[in-house]
Specification:
CATH superfamily of the largest domain: Outer membrane efflux proteins (OEP)
Largest sheet: 4 strands, antiparallel
Number of strands: 4
Strand content: 5-15%
Distance between the termini: 71 Å
Number of domains: 2
C-alpha cells in the first residue's frame, strides 16, 4: 500500500471519528437571573453601603473585639475550612500540570532465555553454528534514559478543567469569608445576649430588694392589725418566686458563656464584659446602599457565582470527552545487551517517538451520562445563585423593617416602664394609708418587673438587628 493511500485512509478515519463525535445529545443550559429592585422597600435609597466597614471598626466594645479576634484565629470550623482551601489550591496546581509534557527518568534491566524449539531459538542455534561460538544462555537487556508523554489539548479540555479548579478554589475562599461573617455575627449576638442576661439579673435583684422591703412593711403593719397574715404570705411567696428565677438566669449565663468559648475554640473560661451602660447603647444607623451592591459584598453570593461559572465550564469539559484525544510519546537513552556496551556512542544510543489518537466509538454511556450530569449541575448552580440573591434581598429588607419597628417599640416600652416605676411608689403610699389593697402593690411591682424585662429584651433585639443587618449586607469578613 502506498503512502498516499495510507494518508487518505487516515484522513477518512479522522473524518469518520469527527462525524461520530457530532452525535452529542442536545442540552439546554440555564442563564441565571440576577436582576434586583433598584432600592430596598424601607427608607430612601442610599449609595453608601456600610458592609465595607471592617468589623474592627464597626464594633466599639473592646471586650467584644478581643473575643472576635480570638474566634477568627482559633475557631475550629474556620481552621478546618482553611485546609479545604489548601486542598482546592493544590488541585489547581495538579490540573495546571496536566496539559504540560511529562518527562520522566527511567532505567531497567532484564534477561531473556528463549526455548530452543522456537523461532528465536532456531536463529540462535544457527548463529552458534555459523560463528562457532555458543550464544549466551541468558541474553540481557539494559537501558536508561528520558521518557516523555504529552496529551495535546486541542479541544481545551485540560485547560478548561484547570479553570474549573481555579473557580472552585475561589469559591472555597468565599465560603471561608461567609463562615467568618457568620462567626463574627454569632459571637456578637452571644456577647450581647450575655449583657442582656446580666441586666436581667440586676433588674431581678433590684425587684427582690423592693419586695423584701415591702415584706418588712407588711409584717410591721400586721403587728398593728393594719393587714392580715394573708398579705404576708403572698409577699413571701412573691419574693421566693423571684429568688428562684435568679438561678434560672445564672444557668442561662453559663450556657451562653460556654457557647462563646466554643466559638472561640477553647474550653470554659470567664467572659470579660462590661454590662453597665447596656441600656444606653444606641444601635448604629446603617446605610443599606442599593440591592445590586450585595452581589459584590456578600461572600455567599460570590461563592454561588464562582460555582455557577465552574459548572458552565464543566459542560465544555464533559463535551470534549466525545472528541478524539491526541498524544505524543517520545524517549531517548541508551540500550545494550551487556553493561560494558551500555554507554557506547552512537552504537547504544536509542530513541523513540510515537503519536496516538483515541476516540470513543462504541458504548459511550458513561460519557453521555457525565455530560448530562454536568448540564444538570449547571442548571442546579444557576438556581442556587438565584436563590442566594433572593434570600439576601429578603434578609436585608426584613432587618431594615425590624430596626424601624423596634425603635418605635422601644420608645413606647420605655414610657411604660417609667409609668410603672412611678406607680410602685404611689401604690405603696396608698397601701400605707389604707387606701389600696396589698394586691395592688404586688401586681404593680410584678408589672414593673415584667415591663423592665421586656425593655431589656427589646434593647437586645435592637442591637442584634443591627448586627444581623451588618451581616446581611455582606459585612463581617474583612
Amino acid at each position: 500500500m502506498t503512502k498516499s493511500k495510507v494518508f487518505h485512509l487516515m484522513v477518512l478515519g479522522m473524518a469518520g471519528l469527527m462525524l461520530q463525535a457530532c452525535g452529542i445529545p442536545a442540552m439546554t443550559s440555564k442563564k441565571a437571573d440576577s436582576n434586583l429592585p433598584d432600592s430596598f422597600n424601607q427608607g430612601p435609597s442610599q449609595r453608601t453601603n456600610k458592609a465595607t466597614v471592617k468589623w474592627k471598626e464597626f464594633f466599639e466594645d473592646p471586650n467584644l473585639l478581643s473575643l472576635i479576634d480570638t474566634a477568627v484565629a482559633n475557631n475550629k470550623e474556620v481552621n478546618i475550612l482553611m485546609q479545604r482551601i489548601s486542598v482546592a489550591q493544590n488541585e489547581v496546581q495538579s490540573r495546571t500540570g496536566a496539559y504540560l509534557p511529562f518527562v520522566n527518568f527511567g532505567a531497567g534491566a532484564d534477561g531473556d532465555k528463549v526455548g530452543k524449539f522456537t523461532r528465536n531459538g532456531a536463529v540462535e542455534e544457527n548463529l552458534d553454528i555459523a560463528n562457532g561460538q555458543a550464544f549466551p544462555t541468558l541474553l540481557g537487556n539494559y537501558q536508561f534514559g528520558l521518557f516523555s508523554t504529552w496529551e495535546l489539548d486541542i479541544w481545551k479540555k485540560l485547560r478548561n478543567a484547570t479553570q474549573v479548579a481555579r473557580l472552585e478554589y475561589m469559591a472555597s475562599i468565599e465560603g471561608k469569608h461567609f463562615l467568618v461573617t457568620n462567626l463574627v455575627a454569632e459571637v456578637a449576638r452571644s456577647y450581647y445576649e450575655l449583657l442582656t442576661l446580666d441586666n436581667q439579673l440586676e433588674n431581678l435583684e433590684q425587684n427582690i430588694a423592693i419586695q423584701q422591703n415591702g415584706l418588712k412593711m407588711v409584717k410591721l403593719l400586721q403587728l398593728y392589725a393594719r393587714t392580715t397574715s394573708l398579705a404576708v404570705k403572698r409577699y413571701e411567696a412573691e419574693v421566693t418566686k423571684n429568688q428562684s428565677k435568679r438561678y434560672e438566669i445564672q444557668q442561662q449565663i453559663t450556657v451562653v458563656e460556654n457557647r462563646i468559648n466554643l466559638l472561640l475554640g477553647r474550653t470554659h473560661q470567664p467572659i470579660r464584659r462590661k454590662s453597665a451602660g447596656f441600656m444606653d447603647i444606641k444601635p448604629k444607623m446603617l446605610n443599606a446602599g442599593i440591592p445590586s451592591q450585595m452581589l459584590q459584598n456578600r461572600p455567599d453570593i460570590r461563592k454561588a457565582e464562582f460555582e455557577l461559572a465552574a459548572a458552565e465550564l464543566n459542560i465544555k469539559v464533559a463535551r470534549a470527552n466525545f472528541y478524539p484525544s491526541f498524544g505524543i510519546r517520545a524517549g531517548v537513552g541508551f540500550e545494550a545487551f551487556a553493561l560494558k556496551f551500555l554507554i557506547n556512542t552512537p552504537e547504544s544510543l536509542a530513541a523513540t517517538i510515537a503519536g496516538e489518537m483515541v476516540a470513543p466509538l462504541v458504548n459511550r454511556n458513561a460519557i453521555i451520562a457525565e455530560y448530562k450530569n454536568s448540564n444538570a449541575r449547571q442548571i442546579q448552580a444557576a438556581y442556587e445563585y438565584e436563590q442566594s440573591i433572593i434570600k439576601a434581598y429578603a434578609e436585608v429588607s426584613n432587618q431594615l423593617s425590624n430596626i424601624d419597628n423596634l425603635g418605635k417599640n422601644y420608645q413606647l416600652k420605655r414610657k411604660q416602664v417609667d409609668f410603672l416605676i412611678q406607680s410602685i411608689g404611689v401604690s405603696t403610699l396608698l397601701f400605707k394609708s389604707a387606701r389600696a389593697d396589698y394586691l395592688d402593690v404586688l401586681l404593680t411591682q410584678r408589672d414593673a418587673l415584667e415591663a423592665k424585662k421586656d425593655l431589656i429584651e427589646t434593647k437586645q433585639k435592637q442591637i442584634i438587628a443591627m448586627v444581623d443587618l451588618y451581616k446581611s449586607l455582606g459585612g463581617g469578613w474583612q
